[in-house]
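## retry 2 of 3
previous attempt timed out at serialization; input unchanged, resubmitting
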Amino acid sequence: MRSRQFSRKEFLGIGAGAAAGFALAGSGMGTFLTRQAAAATLSAYSVPLPVPPVLRGATQSLNIEQMYHRFHGGMPPSRVWGYNDGVKKSSGYLGPTIEVQKNTTTTVNFTNNLPDTHLLPVTTELVPDGTDVPRILTHLHGGFVSAANDGNPYATETLFFKGNKQTAVYPPQPRATTLWYHDHAMGMTRLNVYAGLAGFFVVRDTNDTGREPNPIGIPGGKYEVPIVIQDKTFGADGRLFYSEDATWMPEFFGETPVVNGAVQPYLTVEPRMYRFRFLNGSQSRFYHLQLEGGVPFYQIGAEGGMFDVPVRANRILLLPAERADVIVDFGGLAGQDLVLGNVDLPDGVVSPADPEMPELMQFRVRGPLTTPGPRAIPIALNGGAKANLANKTPLMTRYITLEEVLDEATTDPDHLELNGRRFMDAVDEAPRAGTIEDWAFVNISADTHPMHMHLTNFQVMKRQALEGERYKEALEAARNGATGSYPLLANNTIDPMPFLVPNSEIRPDPNERGWKDTVRANPDQVTWIRQKFALPQGVGAPQKYVYHCHILEHEENDMMRPFEVV
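## retry succeeded, writing output
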């Protein structure tokens, strides 16, 4: 990982001519380095947490625009990109929360009103037409949709430039849950999302009504708060800083926490239960969340919907794109200030994140109590469902090798691959509609990867340790044409089973019990997921989708592959 850290220092401009931008006071955060001018100090926990406006209705129209947004009162306004509905508007950064009912079809029109030049430096080598002209392609992350409405660059080869409108029709979703929408334009995903193109998409049903009281005894109304966590770097002039040039970097780690578009904000809460929908919306950073004082989380759901029973946890790990639906009980804590912290990663989870980001936001518990709300954590969650594929027999198992390719001269990361393939290579994976398959992610790279499937929700089955070096040697030999004990499979990989470490099976975490659309795949491990390739009603095969690492820098170069449901 030393080569990555060196490359990152070069990108930040450490050395001759580098000067301080912004620093957070009293938060343990480092100085923000740019080639701009003077230093300023930002006070932590001085900005209230913004909450995005909510849009309801069968048809929505959002304009994607450049605007100005103030992330902190001590900073100048920053140029950002965001979604504006023209009525409730957005906060100037991110998008409004779109709220729908499970049994309804929703149409969203996304119109590109962006300027002629990008807000950030574009790596034109990663863009299909080789230009830096801004374009959009909005994806409903976790959505059960047809390929044409999915917003993925394999199914939708024509992107949406200035003045174009993308119309997406989202059919009824199978479960009440927390989805999100974000840009997925090929070669610009990481830049468009960093600029602000993301928002929540919440699905309701007759149990999860969003109101109080509700049939399942969980908080609702103003006591339910969406929270998206990101990391940014700012110049002294307030500008969003991603890179000084158009060179691809293997990961991006910002210098400061931004929550719902505010730098290290606070939220005043009453001494009662709250529901928080956490989303890791960062480019590359992992978050291991912990509340000060050991106050527990009660997780009631993940990406694919609500659990059957709550899971108590003192810490929650969220990789990019993962969500956690949690209840926190602030009862009996009146007068206390609690920091939402980001602590060390669990054993086996590997990320080269630098700098550290130990403090994210603050909860201020204050009275008076205006509405008591639920009085106890529910024992069971009516309408929730434990993922039920464990007792199903998969039609087949597909092995997917996660690989990092280094530059031979510099040993810096050059690009990433899945099964030795790049995005534009021919399709290998073609599951049949209606069938169940196991996919096993064989990680022989140095990092943990959050692997995301479009179309499906899946169940995490298990993990097992892998003799990674032996596997890599055998894989290389097979790809070089050697014949022997480990033949090359049709999708350019080999069977990892002979390389598994005996007696090393790891059961899924308690909060991986539900349906998911993103799973962590640790290095020198094989991670199994089980999924059914169902298509929305009235949608016929074939349908085109993608799967990829949700570290956005990895996805774009080139840890993303197409699959077709046939």
